[in-house]
Design brief:
The chain is 83% helix and 2% strand. It is globular. It is built from 7 helices and 2 strands. It has one domain (2-238): Rhopdopsin 7-helix transmembrane proteins (Up-down Bundle). The protein has a two-stranded antiparallel sheet. By secondary structure, it is mainly α. The mean pLDDT is 85. The protein has helices spanning 2-34, 38-66, 70-104, 107-124, 145-171, 177-203, 209-238, and strands at residues 131-132, 142-143.
Length: 239
């Protein structure tokens, strides 16, 4: 079972990650090259930080193969995990800007929101005994079930619920049918993207090969698909 799990993990790391990194960076470049305002910076950083998190995760896996140092591996995985939250922060700020404009979401409000949510993201992964990476886990991250519940609660409270409220409010502002149709692509992309943190946490907690196999295949497709849907749904029109 350990061998099967390692194969699945290697499949995710060496197939999904490079594809996702390249796709995210290409989309970020397309957004930022055309127009540079706060809206495009927010969405550009969404894709850049996503690719950065995946890149560090790839480094973590490579280091774990050749240099089995508990502190270094925990630091790399911690950094990768924290950065997973930041794309969602910039996505929320992007949608908040679309909803209320820079008259309400001033630079001060934007900065404070970024700092507060960033601190929350950093503290979440310092949960005592939440992540174990050592010889007993075959140098792979293992989450406790208590930590899974904690992350689910925090992510739902600080990301899923606020995003849902902001997106719903924004959707009702579109009156033209063709704009609503395009916005549905954006909405679908966000829904797909929101499933990723929940699945990754469960992947690192539940030692079930069938689920891990399903998730490996699902995540390979859905992360790319969600990034593209978010771009063509609304980002393409502002870039």
């Amino acid at each position: 079972m350990i061998f099967q799990t390692e194969l699945l993990r290697a499949f995710l790391i060496f197939t999904a990650n490079p594809i996702l990194i390249i796709t995210s960076l290409v989309i970020a470049f397309k957004i930022l090259i055309r127009r540079r305002v706060r809206l495009t910076y927010s969405l550009g950083f969404f894709y850049i930080l996503l690719s950065l998190s995946l890149g560090i995760n790839l480094i973590f896996f490579l280091v774990s193969l050749f240099y089995k140092n508990e502190f270094l591996l925990f630091f790399l995985y911690y950094l990768s995990s924290v950065l997973v939250f930041f794309p969602f922060i910039f996505l929320m700020l992007f949608i908040a800007d679309l909803n209320y404009g820079e008259e309400v979401v001033t630079n001060r409000v934007y900065t404070i929101s970024l700092i507060v949510l960033g601190i929350v993201s950093i503290l979440v992964y310092l949960f005592p005994g939440g992540i174990t990476i050592n010889e007993s886990t075959n140098w792979t991250p293992q989450f406790s079930w208590t930590f899974l519940i904690f992350i689910y609660i925090m992510f739902t409270a600080f990301v899923t619920i606020p995003l849902t409220i902001l997106i719903t409010k924004l959707y009702h502002k579109f009156l033209a049918p063709h704009l609503k149709k395009k916005f549905r692509y954006f909405l679908l992309g966000i829904i797909f993207f929101l499933t990723i943190p929940y699945g990754v946490v469960l992947f690192n907690t539940w030692d079930e090969v069938i689920f891990k196999t399903f998730w490996s295949l699902y995540s390979l497709v859905i992360i790319i698909l969600s990034g593209i849907l978010i771009y063509i749904g609304i980002a393409k029109n502002i870039s």
